[in-house]
Design a protein that fits this description.
Blueprint (H helix, E strand, L loop, with lengths): L6 H20 L1
Amino acid sequence: GQPQYPNMVRAAWQTHWNYSKRSLAMR
């Protein structure tokens, strides 16, 4: 099965994705 990533990594990825989306929307 697939490895379960820690919530910390998942939260960091979510934050990075949100920041990226906001940056694209702003531009």
